[in-house]
Fold these 2 entries.
Entry 1:
Amino acid sequence: MPSVNIPLFSAHKANDSLDFVTPIKKVLESHWYILGAEVKAFEAEFAEYTGVKHCISVANGSEALELALLGLGVKQNDYVVAVANAGFYGSTAIHAVGAKPLYVDIANDTLTMCPVALKASLDLKPSAIIVTHLYGQLANIEEIVSIASAAGIPVLEDCAQSHGASRNGKLAGSFGTIACFSFYPTKNLGALGDGGAIVTNHVEVAEKVLQLRQYGWSKKYHVEVPNGRNSRLDEMQAAILRVKLPHLDTWNAQRRSIAQRYNNAFAHLDMQLPHSINEDFVAHLYVVRVKNRDDFAQYMSSHQISTDIHYPVADHMQPAYNSSKSKSMSLSQTEEACQSVISLPCFPGLPDEDVQRVIDAVVKYFSEGK
Ligand SMILES: *Cc1c(COP(=O)(O)O)cnc(C)c1O
């Protein structure tokens, strides 16, 4: 019986062999910690990587979402369309700006926003649409953007799980009006602490977000935009992210290759597998759907394999907000997904033999007639 537990993510393994001392020392020696050369350089590099004109770094992914909604001009009591299976992050931002989530269902295969469901929600005249590229899978973003443009509604891409995902050479974050990233340590591009960014091609939106992240200032001590705050990435995290960004595509390829091994090994089993293992999937999480999830999780745990549920409670079922503060279209696919999704270990640095241990355990589970 193998005794060492396989984790869902290992910061140690994912960051192995990277030199963080040199960039941190450089910042220490500069004696400049906030909004300096490293932040400026990272913003330029990340904008270029994503293929978008402007990048504004912020303190974390959640504030990126909130400031992006404000940047788009979303107001109190406006509706903002979102899916309800993406961990409540978008919902938190919608509530924070005083708007109301308008939940639409997901497509059963990609587990991302269903364009048909989106269309049906537009009668309520939402003022923005948040599209989450969940688990690293690019949503059907081209179709969603085309529906939204026809209706004159801006699209906000939540790319916190999809750094580097692309379709036909176009990257996550470059399809909509504005996009948000998180650099939380477990993300495909992760700092050694909190961090986030907003990218957009629209200069007016970029300028507004730039003001919002620093007290709403137009210049020092002149508050021009309401609802501003302090939301800044610091120089150390920016310096660390600059070390990591050049490796992102390699790490994404490693994640994808693990997902590919799993998909090949599980193809004949009674479970729903990730929809794509192409460039439009960066395997932030390897999520399958099984019938008896508790049983499956228990079995994996008894084989020292970590699993988790992303996410167990749909947004419209969360106890903190009652239904008067949101509106839901039919969410049958969302509710079914919440009952059956389960994540298996998939991260850069996960050893081949651990991937094999996961495969063996899953295959054995089904061969035992589960
Ligand atoms: C992690 C995450 C966020 C929030 O990012 P933080 O940096 O933790 O605030 C937002 N959306 C999605 C989809 C995420 O996975």
Entry 2:
Amino acid sequence: MARFACPSYSSQLRIDLGALRANYRALADHAAPALCGAVVKADAYGLGAAKVAAALAREGCRIFFVAQLGEAFDVLDAVGIDSSIYILNGLDPGGEAACAEWGFVPVLNGRGQLDRWRAFARAAGKPLRAALQMDSGMSRLGLDLAALADLAQDRSFGEEISLCLLMTHLACADEPDRAANDAQLAQFGAARALFPDVPASIANSGGTFLSPDFHCDVVRAGIALYGARPGPQAPPLRPVVSLDARVIQIREIGEGTGVGYGLDYVADTRRRLATIGVGYADGWPRSLGGNGAAWLDGQRLPIVGRVSMDSLTIDISDLPPTALGEGDFVELLGPHQSLDDVARDAGTISYEILTRLGRRHARVHVEDQAAEIVAAGARI
Ligand SMILES: *Cc1c(COP(=O)(O)O)cnc(C)c1O
């Protein structure tokens, strides 16, 4: 990024690539002998697709999934020449030439995408790689079983398309008791029987921890790599992100004083407040007003009043008077408050918190947080 180094910042987002790699190893070990692919769409859930993909490639990952063609270019230089980059949303009209030239693998999700890619392959005079998505029950993307059966019979399909993955997606992978999971697996089994030699994939992060039946040949891990828990059936993973925000101002208010837009919060006694430099423009949800918290030294500091665009206010009355000063940092994501905690307080899912964190935080990618702490200790 062609930006001068900013001498000061309101918040710092740390991305622990060592933890990311440990999560990848844990998922890959759990899924073996199936292969573990990495979902790095949406800028690797907001954490920096190129850096994330490069770290995962060093850990042995060779299968990457993005959502859109433009995102494939973001990771192209980061992954090995021996890697495959799948485009989950498939091909928008006009993307065929770029996709073929750079060797990206479109996931063909319906008739239109299928017909365009086949026509492009015919014109190119050589088979092109593709994945096929089945709709096994989610009604989002994919071909139904009858359409797949037709394709399996279609000789020219086999000549035009080199099919490298048959996939489908689970609607309820985060709810292990839902009957829909097994129903989708059974539907997908029928599709797999049509293409017995083609590798198959059904599991996202949550699906990877349902049962080994869901591993098939490739799992597609996203949120679990980034440290959030994909469902109650999954073990805790290592946190990858931490977010610290700076105190802009500290003040005391008396009984009956209102705070923030709408004066939603009114102090019932004398309170000490800190205003910190993160707001909803930084992806910190407005729904956390009067509901979420920041942390310092193991102490919960509740958000009082509404979250503003660039700031929010926390109650620090329970801290010793000198514990927090202007310019100091408080924890928004870290050892005391996980992505899952914030998502619960905000009434949403960890995916949304993560992907909205935005570009205003100073970002540090740490190669190995544990090693860095050891090295820092060694210097003392
Ligand atoms: C986003 C996505 C994934 C990854 O899902 P997680 O729950 O983050 O692991 C896998 N497959 C498809 C088709 C997706 O769209």
